[in-house]
Amino acid sequence: SEPGAGALFDVGIYPINTARWMFDALPTNAYANALRRDGSSADEISTIVLSFPGERLAVIDCALTLGYRNHYDIIGTNGSIYVDRPYASPPFQPGRDGLVTRITTSSGDAAGAERIADVDQYRLEIEAFDKGVRGDNSDLYPTTESAADAAVLAACLASMRSGKPEAVALPTNP
After folding, report:
1. Of 34, 48, 73, 97, which is least surrounded by CB within 10 A?
2. What pLDDT does 40 receive?
3. Position 39 pLDDT exceeds 80
4. How far apart are CA 79 and CA 105, in angstroms?
């Protein structure tokens, strides 16, 4: 397949970006494995482990051919945060009542919950693009962030090929 085909590039970039945002850091290395079927070179299922400074890990799985899931968990020593539907809002998942963030302690006792209203994410992207075309760059995603995401994807792809963890290296001129 051409670079960019498969689960890693299609849906894996979202949790990769989320992990970078949560840790406010670029991972030092990436280990990725992929399942490919029927002679395809595109990954249908990928598993990724990102190592971050400070002995922190992000463990990610993404797939194009498994049952639909769209959530993430942040697990720490004092509790966890569960985020349901962070990457797609209605109309893609009609009939569900808003995005729900649940925060629980490590013992499993509920500590609180917050509901965040659904938004049309594509409309917001188009509006931000329109503002950028008109000269207002306040909502544009920084190219340095895009370069960092691309560096992580490149390390994941290299790891899929080598079968070993690969260093994440930013380009010299993003």
Report:
1. 97
2. 79
3. no
4. 4
Length, in residues, of the chain: 174
What is the chain's alpha carbon radius of gyration, rounded to the nearest angstrom? 18
Total-model pTM: 0.84
Residue with tokens 């697990």: 75
How many Å apart are CA 100 and CA 103, to the nearest integer?
10
85-140 residue pLDDT tens: 777 655 555 445 555 555 555 566 767 777 776 677 788 888 988 998 999 988 77
Question: From the CB of residue 160, how many other CB atoms can be counted at a distance below 10 Å?
Answer: 20
For residues 83 and 116, what is the distance between their CA atoms, to the nearest angstrom?
Answer: 10
